Amino acid sequence: MSHTPLFADRTHAGEELARVIHNVLTQQTIDSGVKPVPIVYALPRGGVPVAAPIARLLGCPLTIIVAKKISHPENPELAIGAVTTCGNVIWSEQKLFRFKDDVRWREIALNKAIKQAQFLERQLISACPQVNAEDATLILVDDGIATGMTIAVAAIAVKALSPAAVWLCTPVAPPKLLPWLNQWGDRIIVLKTPEAFSSVSNFYAQFPQVETLEVLVYLQQQKTMGETDVCE
After folding, report:
1. How many CA atoms lie within 13 A of 129 on its CB side?
2. What is d(CA 162, CA 164) in angstroms, rounded to the nearest whole number?
3. If both were cysteines, with which of 63, 114, 186, 228 could 165 make a disulfide (CB 3.0 to 4.6 Å apart)?
């Protein structure tokens, strides 16, 4: 199945998403008379290049929330759930196991995903700023949503930080997923919802793998900008 690309690359998608989020925040301030305090939480690695233009436009901190898909033991590409570094977990509602001892297989797959998430977090956390999420508007960003499980489990994790609101924001997602996503966020912002949806990568002209070093650069740049603003 072929698709016409909707975005040149993740940065282009992030710039478009940033303008929409900025407009919504501005309107919210007008309507309520209270200016939200935004913090952008990117899902690494692919969500970081999308999130960086958003944090720049909003002039707010950029940090990460690491969530990893839990892969089926027989098919690593098939997601059976998602988990965060601190053990928040969502399982697929589909009956994907046919093992008699599926509990043991689920535990093995879960532990593997947690270790992967914790390893990635250790690589990136030093470049993240210290943030206070309490009473803030937390803007969760990924480069696209296919199953929704990783951004949903990330939302569970950040809700524990007592924010004022949690927004789930992405350039592209299947329309049939939107009702399900509504239960995880206070606001859902999706730029494009194409009916024909097989893979997030199909909607980008350029969709290279994002390397850890590239993520560190994005995070450090925004962290430095934030420190400069404070000094000024």
Report:
1. 24
2. 7
3. 186
Q: From residue 13, how far is each of 113, 154, 157, 171 by CA, in Å? A: 28, 21, 25, 6
Categorize the per-residue pLDDT at 73 as very low, low, confident or very high, splitting at 50, 70 and 90.
Answer: confident
SS3 156: helix
The residue type at 33 = G
Please, how many CA atoms are within 13 Å of residue 49, restricted to the half-sphere of its CB?
20
Backbone torsions φ then ψ of 208, nearest 5 degrees:
-70, 160
| Range with lowest mean pLDDT among 3-12, 53-62, 200-209 | 3-12
- Which residues neighbour 7 within 8 Å (Cβ) at sequence distance 6 or greater? 13, 16, 171, 172, 203, 204, 205
Q: Is the pLDDT of residue 96 over 60?
A: no
